[in-house]
Design a protein that fits this description.
single chain, mainly alpha, 124 residues, 5 helices, two-stranded parallel ribbon, globular
């Protein structure tokens, strides 16, 4: 989630950290989120030059500028998958000035029922 200031250099460093740490599926949401898709893609390319990333280390990247955060959380839990590796963990990284951990943890849990609430017309 992106709702705070950051430099291009810091973005590149975080993108390299994500790739080097074994991130396999990066979803960006918030201000200028498409730049994170590009930044992580570039970090992945740089890591494996002159070759391509091996299938089991390929990082899928998406950005979600026209969706609610709850929808992105739901997608992360039920739709995000990797063709070669089972995704077992979700790490939420918030780029911002305020501590919103409790808010995001609650929304992540709430998102598990999003599809049911949409079907019933009970969105909050």
């Amino acid at each position: 989630m992106l709702d705070g200031p950051y430099s291009n250099k810091w973005q590149s460093e975080v993108s390299r950290w994500l790739v080097d740490s074994g991130c396999l599926y990066m979803m960006a949401w918030g201000q200028n989120c498409s730049s994170w898709d590009d930044s992580v893609d570039c970090a992945q390319i740089e890591k494996f030059l002159p070759d391509e990333a091996p299938d089991e280390e390929f990082v899928m990247t998406t950005w979600h500028d026209d969706e609610t955060l709850e929808s992105v959380f739901w997608f992360a839990q039920f739709c995000a998958h990797h063709g070669d590796v089972e995704l077992k963990n979700t790490l939420v990284v918030h780029v911002g000035l305020d501590d919103r951990e409790a808010e995001f943890a609650a929304l992540f849990q709430q998102s598990k029922t999003l599809a049911d609430r949409e079907d019933e017309g009970q969105l909050t």
